Amino acid sequence: MADLPHVAQPGEMIAPQRTALIVVDVQVDFASPEGLIGRYGTDMSPAEAAIDRIEALIIAARKAGATVGFMRVMTRPETDSNALKTWMTRRGTPGSEGICRIGSGGEDYYRVAPEPGDIEVSKLAYSSFHGTDFEEQLRARGIDTLVMTGLTTDCCVDSTTRDAFHRDFHTFVVSDACASFDEALHVHTLTALNEHTSLLVTTDAVVAAWSA
User: Fold this and answer.
1) Taking every annotated instance into account, which residue ranges of this chain make up the domain Isochorismatase-like (predicted)?
2) Which of 100, 123, 158, 178 is catalytic?
3) How far apart are CA 208 and CA 212, in angstroms?
4) Domains of the chain (ranges plus CATH)?
5) What is the value of pTM for the model shown?
6) How many CA atoms lie within 13 A of 91 on its CB side?
């Protein structure tokens, strides 16, 4: 990510008392070789590398007293929207919407897990704000800044980050702690977010800020 602009010392911009580390969709179906995407033969190494850094960020956030929030897709066939099912059919992939089904195991967290006092959000769509109480949970804690991580950069991380910006939250995207299954999509999404809504940071910079 050397060619993308990063904030080297975010410092007080991500002060722990008003900042939440957001972990988006680190779940079996999105991250594990045994999950739905992995079973198609997808290279899961980008996700694994991002989760390595997410684990370090979670530790740093907890030590610093920053809030940690876990977002998770939780679906049933009856919750699939008509728009989603129609789009899948029209693009020639009917049935592909069946991801993170409740009870399948694919909806489970992968390598990370919330602890008492963390924020948890169950969602049906890409954005963690859509149809959830996520904003209310953040406001109740006095949080105005989000440090974004997770899967995938181009989909749920992007959607949640843009919606956060529209709701007047300051957003930072940890470029090496989120991932896509297409490197070009990952980089292009980070470029667009940096251009329109967010500042980019690295894991090392955030850990340093929260360890100061």
Assistant:
1) 19-204
2) 123
3) 6
4) 16-211 (3.40.50.850)
5) 0.96
6) 10
Catalytic residue of the set 25, 29, 154, 176: 25
pLDDT (average), residues 2-15: 94
Annotated active-site residue in 100, 154, 155, 156: 156
Residue 178's nearest CA partner among 195, 198, 204, 158 is 158
pLDDT confidence of residue 94: 77
Active site (annotated) includes residue 85: no
Helical H runs in the chain? 28-31, 45-64, 82-90, 134-140, 158-166, 183-196, 203-211
Confidence bin at 124 (pLDDT 50/70/90): very high
Known catalytic residue at 156: yes
**Residue in 34, 58, 32, 177 with CA at minimum distance from that of residue 113:** 58
Determine the Cα–Cα distance for residues 67 and 64; give it in Å rounded to an integer. 9
